[in-house]
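chain below, 135 aa
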Amino acid sequence: MQTKFGHLVFSIDTENTAFYRDLFAFLEWQVLYDGEGMLGVGDSNGVSLWFGSATKSAANDYDGPGMNHFAVSTAAQADVDAAVAYLAERGIAPLFETPRHRPDFTFDEASTYYQVMFETPDRILVEIVYTGPKS
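prediction:
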């Protein structure tokens, strides 16, 4: 059986839809669907993320059972810094002493794992990361 990753669906407060639309436009993902209570965005590899109306008032706890975070990879280390600036303009603070290099996640001395982590208005934990040659 040959498979590949398809999509994730996140339940959000629909008042925050513009945050996700703008963030993924900045990250150069395409809008696949933008309608009543649902936003779908897709990357160049066919992966899609969907943000739809929450049906319960439970709060997300990324340190509890379930998904901790999702990551979006960039092509250059400078892209992570651009994301940090983009988030700062919107009042979104980096978490966990990021942005930073994580040598514990690299494959060799010539490579780097450079990340920023942040929380969306719906408490979804997101990582934007560059992995590749040190610049």
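The first strand starts at residue 7 and ends at 12. The mean pLDDT is 95.
thats it, cya
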